TrEMBL record:
Source species: Panicum virgatum
Ranges of Gly residues composition bias in the record: 1-12
Entry superkingdom: Eukaryota
Annotated region (Disordered), positions in chain: 1-118
Gene Ontology biological-process annotations: cytokinesis by cell plate formation
Name of the protein described by the UniProt record: Coiled-coil domain-containing protein SCD2
Biased composition (Polar residues): 50-64
Feature: compositional bias, Low complexity: 31-43
PANTHER family given in the database record: COILED-COIL DOMAIN-CONTAINING PROTEIN SCD2 (PTHR31762:SF17), FAS-BINDING FACTOR-LIKE PROTEIN (PTHR31762)
Length: 476
């Protein structure tokens, strides 16, 4: 029994020598991919590695394509059994051998199926890993190509920079050589001209010294000329009249024009009266009206308080006025002219002669007996129109001068006298007013109000010039 069984087994193994895993060959590309959790077999890995080395193209740059098929897996044969077993199996009976072969066929087919399924799973897994490795390899090759391209570009740039540096070095060397040659030439030229240049330098120094001395002398002359010019300008500015001085000139011209007109009218100094009248009337055609107007301003307190005008007005007048023009109102010549006329008027006693001529025209007022009692003989006389005008003229004159005296604080009694003449102008004019205005004029001359006003005007002008400087100092 045991030998029969062993014979059957031996014959079965002999029959299995020709047994192969039948079926179609396995193609990797045609097998559906599916994931498996089983770990790949080491033998299968070595087998696929050998197949990959055989089937891989010579260049690593050729990319793997999924459409290409993987080399076929050869059929697996069972190893042959020993000869002793075959001999023993030949002795077993025929029926047992068939049963054994049938059981072996069933078991082998089951094992082959299980083995084929596991191999398919492992092959699919390996194929996915193989494709991933191919992709990584291709990406590495692309990066390597990019690196090679960048390296070549950097090499070209480095080569260009080397060429530029070499060219610049050559140019610099040439410039250095030319500069060195120029230095040598300049040294030679300086050595040759050293003797001549020393003489020229000495000559230039002497000329510079002489020019410096000349400049010094010229600067001294300029300074002295400037000081003289400032002195002349100060003198010229002192000859310029202030606003109040010009008003006074106008008033005095009106005085001269009025009294020479009265002289001509009453036949006083008939040989020169008409000529003087024409001359002074040309400056003051409306003498009475002008004096009454300025007297009203003095009563109202609207006269200019400041002795000198502002700096811009002084500058404009100094540029426009001419010291040689006697008819100009802005310089001192006009003041001297009217003062000369007033002195001539006083020396000829024109004012006294005019007052006597006007007094002869007075007539007695026709008054009743009771009304005439208690009145002085002078109050019973009625003044003529010319006498009344003369009184108004002199009242305005006195009011003007006392207003200026008060503005400049010349006399302590200036305010009192100003109020007195303001009140006098509000009452009707009588013969008493004739006496009062004459007393007022005498007091004005005795106190020297006109001279004091002139001195105050000059002091204010000098102070203004010292504070603001000469109007034309910038031009000098």
């Amino acid at each position: 029994m045991g030998g029969g069984a062993g014979g059957d087994g031996g014959s079965g193994s002999d029959d299995d020598d020709d047994y192969e895993l039948s079926g179609p060959p396995i193609e990797l590309s045609a097998t559906p991919r599916r994931t498996s959790t089983r770990s790949p077999s080491p033998s299968i890995g070595r087998y696929l590695a050998d197949q990959t080395q055989v089937g891989r193209p010579p260049s690593l740059t050729n990319r793997y394509t999924a459409g290409k098929s993987v080399p076929m897996i050869p059929s697996i044969k069972r190893p042959a059994t020993s000869g002793a077993g075959a001999g023993a199996g030949s002795e077993s009976p025929m029926p047992n051998r068939r049963e054994q072969r049938r059981s072996v066929d069933l078991g082998s087919s089951m094992r082959a199926r299980r083995t084929s399924s596991s191999l398919h799973d492992e092959i699919n897994t390996l194929q996915v890993e193989n494709e991933s490795m191919y992709d990584k390899l291709h990406l590495a090759e692309e990066r390597s190509e990019d690196g090679d391209a960048k390296s070549m570009h950097m090499e070209r740039e480095a080569s260009d920079i080397d060429d530029a540096v070499e060219t610049e070095t050559i140019v610099i060397n040439r410039k250095d050589a030319a500069l060195e040659q120029r230095k040598i030439a300049m040294r030679i030229a300086s050595r040759r001209s050293s003797s001549a240049s020393c003489d020229e330098i000495a000559t230039l120094k002497s000329e510079a010294k002489a020019a410096n001395n000349m400049v010094t002398s010229v600067s001294r002359g300029v300074k002295s000329a400037r000081s003289e010019l400032r002195s002349l300008q100060a003198t010229a500015n002192r000859m310029i009249l202030s606003q109040e001085d010009m008003e006074e000139v106008v008033l005095k011209r009106c005085w001269l024009a009025r009294y020479w007109t009265l002289c001509s009218k009453h036949g006083i100094h008939s040989d020169i009266a008409e000529e003087k009248q024409e001359y002074w009337s040309s400056f003051a055609p409306l003498a009475l009206e002008a004096v009454l107007s300025i007297g009203q301003k003095a009563r109202d307190g609207t006269l200019s308080v400041h002795v000198v005008a502002d700096n811009s007005e002084m500058e404009s007048r100094s540029k426009m006025s001419d010291a040689n023009d006697i008819s100009s109102d802005g310089n001192i010549e006009s003041m001297l002219s009217v003062e000369k006329g007033l002195r001539e008027l006083a020396s000829l006693k024109v004012e006294d002669a005019v007052m006597l001529a006007l007094a002869e025209n007075r007539h007695i007022k026709p008054l009743s007996g009771q009304a005439s009692e208690g009145r002085s003989p002078s109050e019973s006389l009625e003044l003529s129109a010319e006498e009344r005008e003369d009184v108004l003229f002199k009242q305005a004159w006195l009011t003007y001068y006392w207003r200026r005296a008060k503005n400049h604080d010349i006399e302590d009694i200036a305010d009192e006298r100003l109020q007195f003449w303001i009140e006098q102008s509000k009452h009707p004019i009588t013969t008493t007013d004739v006496i009062e205005v004459e007393r007022g004029l005498h007091e004005l001359r005795k106190l020297g109000i006109e001279s004091k006003l002139w001195d105050a005007s000059r002091r204010a002008l000098n102070d203004d010039l010292s504070n603001h400087g000469s109007p034309t100092g910038s031009e000098a």
